[in-house]
Every structure is written in C-alpha cells, then in structure tokens.
Design goal:
With about 230 residues, this protein is an alpha+beta fold. About 55% of the residues lie in helices and about 20% in strands.
C-alpha cells in the first residue's frame, strides 16, 4: 500500500514538473516576443518622428512660398522644383519629378508638394510622404534644405550640416546619395559636414571620424590616427 502511494506521488510530481517546465517555456517565449515587439515599436516611433520632422520642413517651405511676392514665388518654385527633381532623378530614376502647386486659399497663396511618376505614359501624382516610403522623403528634405540655402535672397555662407540625411534610403541608392553630396560641394562651393551611422556614406567622405565607446571612454578614430578622449 505504501509502495503504491509512493509511486502515485512520484507520478503526480513528474506531471507537476512537466507542467511547470511547459509553463516556464511558454513564459520565456512570451517574454522574448514582448521584447521583440517593444523593440519594433521603438523603431517605428523613431521612423514616425523622422517623417514628422520632414513634413514640418515641407510645411515651412509652403509658408515661405506663401509670403513672398508672386514673381519671386514663381522663381523660387521653379528653382526648388528643378533642384529637387534633379536630385530625385540622380539618386532614384529618371521617371520621378518634384512638383509644387500654388493656389489661392481664402485670399492667400498656399503651396502643395507632389512627387510625380511617369511610367509607360501613365502619370501618377502622390504626396511626398506617400511616395515609395521614407527614402524618397529623406532625399526631398535633403534637396529642399540645399535649395533653400541657394535660393535665399540673403547670402548664407558656411557649410551644410546634415544629421542622418539618408536614414531611410536603402543601400541600393546610398552610393548615388554620396555622389550627389559630392556634386553639391563642387557646384555650390560648400563643405558638407555629416553625422551618419551609414558605413557607405562615411567611407565616401574626404575625411571621417568614428566614435566608439569602450569601457566608458569615447575613442575617436580617423582615417589617419586614433585619439582617446574622455566624455
């Protein structure tokens, strides 16, 4: 009788252990899934904020175009359209154009921005934020910044400072982005200072600095030497 009881208790104990292991495995799987979803959410939030920043830039350009005179507005429109279109075609393909439409709304001019695609004779007009994902709006924002510097009535000197200018551009087009930036330096006689995590962009620079954190110390590496700095 005692032996049967011991065997029954051992069987029940084994069942409890199996259930415990099963629940434990399920817990760790769900924990890993939660961490993965949290990481994805953070990435999406960063992408969303980047798009919002780019949209705010477009809104500033729209307001600027609305405030200047009709003639100056038309000249600025043509120059901005041309530079941004050239940039899009240089980096992506020849079927893309950038368009600005200015209309009178409640007695004041307002500007709308479009990306125009022409494939096999079919013209498709979309908002920049809806055209081919974040890469296109990154390039439009980059080109508009340069256009605003060069089209301004006030002479603005100094370098062009960029922070992750092609964050959402795929590696298929990064070489074209770097070549475009080099053309900007030659055409407009401006130095480009850029912060980027993209290896391809940094390697195309004439001079680069790489910062790495090692044991609480920021190590600044260059193409010539390695310098230690404490932050």
């Amino acid at each position: 009788m005692l032996k049967e009881s011991i065997l029954r208790y051992q069987t029940e104990l084994q069942d409890i252990r199996r259930k415990h292991d099963k629940i434990k495995n399920y817990y760790y799987k769900q924990k890993g899934r939660k961490e993965q979803l949290t990481e994805q959410r953070l990435k999406l939030e960063k992408t969303l904020q980047s798009c919002i920043d780019n949209i705010e830039l477009l809104e500033k350009v729209r307001i600027l175009l609305g405030r200047v005179s009709e003639f100056a507005r038309e000249q600025a429109r043509i120059q901005i359209e041309s530079l941004v279109t050239n940039c899009l075609q240089y980096i992506f393909d020849t079927n893309l154009e950038f368009g600005i439409e200015i209309n009178e709304v409640r007695g004041r001019p307002e500007a709308e921005f479009f990306v125009i695609s022409n494939f096999t004779g079919q013209v498709i007009k979309t908002k920049p934020q809806e055209a081919r994902g974040g890469g296109v709006i990154d390039i439009i924002s980059l080109a508009i910044r340069i256009a605003m510097l060069e089209c301004s009535d006030d002479e603005i000197k100094g370098p062009v400072i960029l922070d992750e200018p092609a964050k959402h551009v795929s590696d298929d087009y990064i070489v074209q982005v770097s070549e475009f930036l080099k053309q900007v330096t030659l055409m407009f006689k401006r130095q480009v200072i850029m912060v980027t995590h993209n290896k391809h962009l940094s390697e195309m620079a004439d001079k680069w600095y790489k910062v790495e954190m090692v044991d609480g110390v920021s190590i600044v590496k260059t193409d010539e030497a390695e310098i230690l700095k404490n932050y």
